[in-house]
Specification:
The chain has 170 residues and is of the alpha+beta class. It has a single domain, classed as Peptide deformylase (Peptide Deformylase). Helix content is 28%, strand content 30%. The strands form two sheets. A five-stranded antiparallel beta sheet has the order 1-2-3-6-7. The protein has a two-stranded antiparallel ribbon with strand order 4-5. A hairpin with a 2-residue loop joins strand 4 and strand 5. The longest helix has 18 residues. It starts with 25 loop residues before the first helix and ends with a helix. The protein binds nickel (II) ion. The site of nickel (II) ion has 5 residues, from helix 2.
Length: 170
Amino acid sequence: MSRLTLYEYPHPILKQKAQKVEVFDDGLRQLLDDMLEMMYECNGCGLAAPQVGISKRIVVIDIAKEDEEPDPLYMVNPEIVWSSDEKKVCEEGCLSVPGMRAEVERPAAVKVKYIDYNGEEKELSAQDFLAVAVQHELDHLDGILYIDHISRLKRQMLLKKLEKQRKEKA
Ligand code: NI
């Protein structure tokens, strides 16, 4: 089992703007390893540090399918430097809003700059589902959840379902 704890909606840390990482050391790499492990354990394709109670600008992503080789992306201090005008709608879910899904409209493609596992600066052009994952995870660093992008009515319905599901599990 992973040594991290998953924080779920409506924990206030998920609403906070995360701080930039200033120190690149073994502790950071350990956290990246632990986050990736937790993400795989939860069958997620992305995880942001605030979701494990750490308000730092760190995300891990792996959109490889189950029958494909793992292809982890580690992003420290990521920043979107370009977004397409073209938008796309995709169904999203989030480990912090368990069991729920909703359609979200976002730019279809983005370019993201970040620092990787080895402390090197990288730039990545993402489209399709990778673009969705990048934008979803980077939103977490600014205290934004995918449910903040849907209509109020849809959000209220989704949160009601979440509450009901939690009561049934309790
Ligand atoms: Ni999420």
